[in-house]
Amino acid sequence: MRNLAATLLATCVIALGAAPALAADTIGISFDKIESFREPELKYLMEAVKKAGLEAEFANAQESAQRQASQVQGLVSKGVKAIIAIPWDIEAAVTLANDTVDAGVPFITMDQAPSDTSVVTYHVGSDPCADGKAAGEFFVKAADGKTMKLLELQGSLSNDNGIRRSGCLGEAIAGHKNIEIVAQVETTWKPELALTATENALQAHPDLNAIFCPWNGCLQGVFSVLEKNQKLKKVGEEGHITIATIDGTPLGCQSIRDGLIDIDIATPLPAMGEKAVAAALKAMKGEKVEPQVEFLPGVPYTPANVGEVGSQIWGCN
Amino acid sequence: MLPVMIIVFAVFAGTVDGFLSVANMRNMALQFSPLLICATGATLVFLIGGIDLSAGAVMSLAAVGAALVMRTTDSVVLGVAAGIACGVAVGAVNGVAIARFRLAAFVQTLAALLTVRAIAFLLSDGRSVGKLPPLVRSIGRSYFLGLPVLMWLALAIAAGVWMLLARTSYGRRIYLVGANRRAAIFSGINVLRLEFQIYLAAATLSALGGVAAVMWLGAGAPVLGDNFLLQIIAAVVIGGTSIQGGYGGMMQTLSGAAIIVMLDRGLDLAGLAYYDQWITLGFVILAGSALGGLLGRLHIRRAEKRKT
Q1: How far is CA B265 from CA A8, A306, B122, B257, in A?
Q2: CA–CA distance from B235 to each of B34, B152, B154, B195, B256 (Å)?
Q3: Higher-confidence residue: B128 or A108?
Q4: Which residue, A24, A59, A68, B162, shows the most beta carbons closer than 10 Å to its own?
Q5: A62 to chain B: nearest residue by CA?
Q6: What percent of chain A has a predicted confidence (pLDDT) above 70?
Q7: CA dist., res. B45 & res. B161, Å (int)
Q8: How confident is the model over A169-184, as pLDDT tens digits?
Q9: What ipTM describes this predicted complex?
Q10: Is residue A186 within a helix (H) or strand (E), and if so which, with residue range?
Q11: Is the CB of residue B137 less than 8 Å from the CB of residue B148?
Q12: Phi/psi at A96 (nearest 5 deg)?
């Protein structure tokens, strides 16, 4: 029995190895999840960390507020000098920020704003309102006074990006009576729900001629429905359905290059990562970070100018 | 599972920097508390040979209900009462459906999982409920004799259930119902009433676990319990309580819950990626079960030798 226990113990020790202690200037990075958009976000953040001469310890909460709370507290107990987090639960993030700051560790949030940004050391995110407004203004320009029947796919109405992208799109097209939103569907950022919503909207409104896709992830579903209904036409072709989207992922860029969508508003991921790390560095030195909250507008690009501005779009490189 | 728990602790203590720090111990204690409370209820259900798939959803509903009442009334007491009431209501429905109307526990609690989770989403509009009275955070961060108050609450509940199972005739009835329902009926036990009480107690404890999580996190989200169901069942099963009923108990669940939390924190601190952690957890479940089985056989063999 003792032999078995010793063998098991030895196996575990060998498998784990001795986990090294943290380097002097290490920051903790806590993401809400890892998926196709978070991967490049992490890549750019890690590049900024390396450029700043820092080390980083990463933790993935995989869509659990409890796990994120434990992980952040774990990183603090390991002695990280600052936390950069994308919160999963925007309300629980307030408690998490208070605990971390009380422990003397700066707490920086990125991309997803907590419900109260006054408790964090610094927040940087894309400007969901500016992006939604830019998409709305594009639809107004594209309609050019003619009738436009628009399907508005929404992200999740339980997070800041979803709420404000939708709200500010609505504000931009309000007062333009020629644009009618024939359906608003919350997809909770799930591509399969975007596909179903597009299918349903097209059945109910065969004359649908515009779609707002609030994140690039819904494009595949939309394309698949349009192709099935022989409505996937290139920009400028007869019967083309105007599509505006947000993110600037490789899929978004390819769709622009293929002429399948009219506009993509690229989230400035490299700038977001750089600003978060710069704020962490400043706070680690005990300096106040100002402004405390920054929202960075996205970079709009179209099939007409992707050749010129493509170098600024993270998904095109 | 005690030997496995000791091995896991020894491995992390010896290899992972910061595992033995006070901050990490307190962190693990906080994570352990809601899990142990819910797993206590699940242990009772497993002991009678049942299953409660709605445990995570009840946690979510109780968390949302408690947080909404706390935010609206600014009263923590009323919020806690509301959270517990959610559990009592769901437990009563589960109990009546399973004990009185003989619905299969799997089917009834699966239906409850879906319905209760949807109610939690409807009540909160799918959003996490925050901006709670400051007392919530104070309770969540209070310590007594170096341990979080939430941990004391969980240990008190576990100790109470341990006493019930090990020291009372009611506890013996629970084991008998799980081991042999027919024999329990013939021996005069009101099995239907006992089953009703167990499902009521399990849902109430899940709700209490949800309220404890609100105290810890400072918010109640309708997705709070989504990741918990698997952990609750794993804690009971890894501990060694039989899923067929009649065998197991609180000490097993205590060590099962401790193993899960230590693995979670230890592997995180060791820097293992999320999915690598799940692979390791699977390995430990298998190795632990094999070790548990071997120990059990050795114990029986020694007892037989002593007899001869």
Answers
A1: 20, 46, 33, 12
A2: 12, 19, 14, 22, 4
A3: A108
A4: A68
A5: B274
A6: 92
A7: 12
A8: 999 999 999 999 999 9
A9: 0.82
A10: strand A179-186
A11: no
A12: -60, -45
| Residue A191: how many other CB atoms lie within 10 Å | 17
Structure-block tokens of residue B155: 């240990």
> Nearest CA to CA, how far is A309 from chain B (Å)?
36
Cβ atoms of residues B60 and B120 within 8 Å = yes
Tens of pLDDT along A177-228? 999 999 999 998 899 999 999 999 999 999 999 999 999 999 999 999 999 9
Residue in the block written with tokens 């036990």: B189
**Cβ contact, residue pair A91, B221, below 8 Å:** yes
8 Å CB contact between A231 and A158: no
pLDDT band of A22, cuts 50, 70, 90: low
- Determine how many CB atoms are found less than 10 A away from the CB of residue A49: 24
Question: Sign (positive/negative) of CA torsion B159, B160, B165, B166?
Answer: positive
B129 and A115: CB-CB below 8 Å?
Answer: no
Cβ contacts of B35 on chain A, cutoff 8 Å: none
For B153-179, b where at least 16 C-beta lie within 10 A, e where not — what string?
bbbebbeebbeebeeeeebebbbbbbb
| Percent over 90 (pLDDT), chain A | 81
Tokens of residue A76, six digits: 């603090």
Of B24, B271, B287, the CB nearest to A19: B271
Residues of B in contact with A188 (CB under 8 A): 126
Q: What does the DSSP 8-state code read for residue A56?
A: E
**CB pair distance less than 8 Å for B219 and A92:** yes
CB contact under 8 A, A73 and B216: no
Alpha helix ranges (H) inside chain A: 2-16, 38-51, 65-78, 92-102, 128-143, 160-173, 191-204, 219-228, 250-257, 269-284, 306-309
A117: DSSP letter: G
Q: Report yes or no on whether pTM surpasses 0.90.
A: no
> Tokens standing for B154?
């969980």
Rounded distance between C-alpha atoms, residue B308 and residue A156, angstroms: 69
Asked if A85 contacts A239 with a C-beta cutoff of 8 angstroms, the reply is no
Q: Does B17 contact A70 at a Cβ distance shorter than 8 Å?
A: no
Task: Looking at the complex, report in whole angstroms how far the Cα of residue A160 sits from the nearest Cα belonging to chain B.
Answer: 11
Cα dist from B124 to A59, A64, A89, B61, whole Å: 28, 17, 13, 9
pLDDT for position B292: 65
- Nearest to A263, CA basis, from A283, A284, A248: A248
CA A26 to chain centre: 25
Residue positions counted in chain A: 317
Strand duo A293-296 + A122-126: pairing: parallel
Beta-carbon separation of B23 and A77 below 8 A: yes
Asked if B268 lies within 8 A of A19 by C-beta distance, the reply is no
Closest CA to B130 of B174, B72, B182, B172: B72
Q: Which 8-state DSSP code applies to residue B129?
A: B
Peptide bond into A114 cis (omega under 30): no
Write out residues in chain B with pLDDT < 70, as ranges: 288, 292-293, 295-296, 307-308
Alpha helices, DSSP H only, in A206-294?
A: 219-228, 250-257, 269-284
For A274, the 3-state DSSP assignment is helix
- Check residue A306 and give left, alpha or beta (phi > 0: left; psi -120 to 50: alpha): alpha
